[in-house]
Design brief:
The structure is a single chain. This protein is mainly alpha-helical and 143 residues long. α1 packs across α2, α4 packs parallel to α6 and α5 packs across α6. The N terminus is likely disordered. The protein has a two-stranded antiparallel sheet.
């Protein structure tokens, strides 16, 4: 039985990937059973962690945690990719944004996208506290 040509190319690419990264994966004790899944997700740019977990932030307590959405995570069951992640303490955000133009640009683009997508009603009785987005918008107003 002959392998499908696309699969054969993919197998060769996977072998090259493993030749290059095998020592790294071994060093972090990455499960052998997930190596192919990791390669496939990297190759396909499948950034899927957001479908499985959500980051819950408590700014009052200055802590964050990952919460599993629908079900549970089992050891060696899957590997998830994160496109990007910026963790910070709110008091340090302005300093970090002033020091990193690319980060500021990305955050402004995220805010612009969210504002276009969501038009949320405001609650006149809610406690008013500056949000992170309010801080980022001030940078946009300065330019």
């Amino acid at each position: 039985m002959e392998d499908h040509p696309v699969q054969a190319v993919s197998d060769e690419d996977f072998k090259k990937f493993m030749e290059f990264h095998e020592l790294q994966l071994y060093g972090i004790q990455f499960p052998k059973s997930l190596e192919r899944k990791l390669y496939d997700k990297l190759k396909g740019e499948v950034f899927d962690i957001g479908f499985k977990v959500k980051i819950m932030v408590d700014e009052e307590e200055e802590r964050s945690e990952l919460q599993c959405q629908g079900g549970s995570l089992k050891k060696h069951e899957d590997v998830f990719l994160v496109d990007h992640l910026w963790t910070f303490k709110q008091r340090d955000a302005v300093k970090a944004l002033r020091a990193n133009d690319k980060l500021l640009e990305r955050m402004l683009n995220i805010i612009k996208y969210q504002e276009e997508k969501l038009e949320l009603p405001t609650n006149p009785y809610a406690k008013v506290r500056a949000s992170f987005m309010d801080y980022v918008k001030t940078f946009h107003d300065e330019t």
